[in-house]
Amino acid sequence: MSEKKRKRTSLDGGQRPSKRAAIVQKEPDSIRVTLIPEEDEWAPVIGMIISASTPGLSLPTNTSMTPYTKTRKNDTASTGKSLLSKSEHLLHTSSHAKIDYTAREEEGGVAGGLLQHYLGVYDPQSGQLQLVRARKLVLRASVRPVPSAPGEVVKQSNGLSARNALGLTFGTKKSQRAIDSITKNAISPAKQRSAPGHLDPIASAVVSSMAAPAPTRDELQAAVDESKPRPKSNPDAETPADVYPTEQLVGGPTTLAQMTIKGWQDAIDADEEILTKSRFVSHRVQGIIKGGDVRRLKCLRYLLLLLEWYSALQSTHKGSSRRVPPSEKLQQALAGWSSFLIDSVSQRFAEGGGGGNTVSRWHLDLLITHICALAVTVDDAFTTNVHDLGRDLKLEVKDTKKYFREIGCSVGPPTESEMKRRGWTKKDVVARLRLPLIFPKMRVPVGRRGGR
After folding, report:
1. Cβ(67)–Cβ(89) below 8 Å
2. Residue 443, SS3?
3. What are phi and psi of 313, to 5 degrees?
């Protein structure tokens, strides 16, 4: 059998320590009650928290509230004509980040509204109880409404606004971000709140643009022509030679001065054949040198530089755009040209100037239209056969014709006199630079015809 546990005996022989004798204070035989008279409208406050709309809400102990007073409209809330019955007090604080606290007296229409409340201080030694009239204030807490962001076009219902306010105050971070995003992305009711006839700057700009007359067809065409990738033409030109000035096509007088033509001239003087990488240049260089036009010869030399730079571009995986090869490979591909001339071409026709290595479709079209303008400038009578240049650019005939039309040339078959003088056939396609220039017109969509 198991042995029963015995209680541990104390060291002093098992006697328990004696309890401390309680001090009994003698109550006074009688209590004297004294009412402190009211000297002004200020009195102690008895607070009662009503928080049915926000359960679990409590007022922090360190909260300070601002008192307000006003004359009571209905002085029957309390009997008599005391100072407290003639005035009404209200306490309010907005020290909390999202909650407003308001304490105010209840009127006579509510339960307990006619009761008078007193605070007492009792002194047990003297048996004296002092009473003072007090105000009973009911404290309520309300979530501060979120200010309407410039984003809310339709006023939300009271239930939805309250739910969003509670979500911003007590919701999770995810719900707060969602409510905040809805508020920011809403449409502002500023125009509804504004005075009649008053418009904000954005609305005024929209209305003014609507009231402004629509641009004419000529204005639209001029805007389209201005943005196209082609050399700037001279609208005041009186002859085809003035349409595209030579210095503009080559990039300035400095570039034109850098064009060395002595090697070609010496080869012709020695009855040597000049072979270049361009079919167009090789077929015309001898005739231009014999004609003695140095300016046209320098333009032909610059045209050869553009064609070789165009051929050195590398294809990319971004559709029709090209890429300028590294400087070492580019210098090898353009052997015989100075670095100054190579860099000047890259600055004009590469995206981002000399620092970029991408030639977008727009810059590529700008390069080809400059080549076409140089071709009609250096050829006789500002008329050229498009086949030679199309083979140099590796373009089909229809694409080559499109580029010549973009610079204002008329494109068609050669005339009888041109075929006799220059040896062309009816199958050849000729581009002519004539005044007035004929640029491609902007296409206007044709409306659909209704069926029967």
Report:
1. yes
2. coil
3. -65, 145
- Position 354 confidence tier, pLDDT thresholds 50, 70, 90: low
Contact, 313 vs 359, CB < 8 A?
yes
Helix axes 386-393, 361-378, angle to 10 degrees: 150
pLDDT category, 29, cuts 50, 70, 90?
confident
Measure Cα distances from 287 to 284, 292, 307, 385, 414 in Å.
Answer: 6, 9, 20, 15, 20
Q: What share of the chain is helix, strand, coil (3-state, %, to 5)?
A: 40, 15, 45
Contacts of 441 (CB under 8 A, 6+ apart): 221
Nearest-5° Cα angle at 278, 276 to 282? 60
Distance from first CA to last CA of the chain, Å, rounded?
116
User: Higher pLDDT residue, 216 or 334?
Assistant: 334
Q: In this structure, which amino acid lies at residue 185?
A: N
pLDDT tens-digit map of 80-134: 566 677 778 788 888 887 888 888 887 655 555 567 888 888 888 888 888 888 8
* Integer CA distances (angstroms), 1 to 4, 5, 6, 7, in order: 9, 12, 15, 19
| Alpha-helical runs (H) found in 259-293 | 262-269, 279-282, 285-291
With contact defined as beta carbons under 8 Å apart, do 350 and 359 qualify?
Answer: yes
Give the Å distances, CA to CA, from 86 to 26, 70, 211. Answer: 43, 9, 63
169-173, 277-281, 347-351, 363-367: which range is least confident on average? 169-173
Per-residue pLDDT band for 392 (boundaries 50, 70, 90) equals very high
pLDDT in tens, 270-283: 888 888 899 999 99
Calpha distance 309→345 (Å, rounded): 8
**Distance set, CA 306 to CA 152, 165, 219, 342 (Å):** 58, 68, 33, 9
Which tokens hold the place of 294?
A: 């140095």
Helix 294-312 with 386-393: angle, nearest 10 deg = 40
Query: What string of DSSP letters covers 312-324?
Result: H-EE-SSTT-EEP
Please state, in angstroms and rounded to a whole number, the distance separating the CA atoms of residues 259 and 246.
13
